[in-house]
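debug: dumping io for the single-chain case to check the tokenizer round-trip. Nothing else runs in this session.
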Amino acid sequence: MKTLERITLNPNVMGGKPCIRGMRVTVGTVLGLLASGHSEDRILQAYPYWRERTSVRLSPTPRGGSKRLRSPSASALNENSHRYNLSPEWVSALTHAGFESLHWSSIGDPTAEDREILDWARRNSWIVFTNDLDFGHILAFTQASGPSVLQTRAQDLLPENLGEIVFAALRQNRDVLEAGALVVVDESSLRVRILPIK
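debug: decoded output
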């Protein structure tokens, strides 16, 4: 098996950024979590389907300090890998904060491209919560009036880091999100674009 088969590129998923085994989790997301000080066990807890589907292993580099992705043996891989973006832990965090939520892994085609997710959200009146920049680009390019997208940008994307910021953004922008908006939130700022973006 070629080394780069475990890192995939698809221009219609996550903006073509390198993803782990075709999942909607970028290599940059994993590196961001490692750089934020999260352990291998904590990251695998946040993304439990990695253990179930691909047996991705994170390990220290020979030099010590930083970490890198180490590919498991070919026999440990399962070809039915899924594409997700934010950790499923967000579902319980959002629910606990009073927001109804679903993770794409529980409702959608694991090989879905960005447009399919947007179409589903539009048809079913859901807000897309993501760190994938493509959703905003698609909304701008198509000048669509929905669905609303809440996009987070941070190195550490886990709920314990961004939860309160995301919950505040949802509460503060409830009306515009219900009407149609792209809301971009990070650890220090919030931007709102009303849809359609022209």
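debug: round-trip ok. The mean pLDDT is 76.
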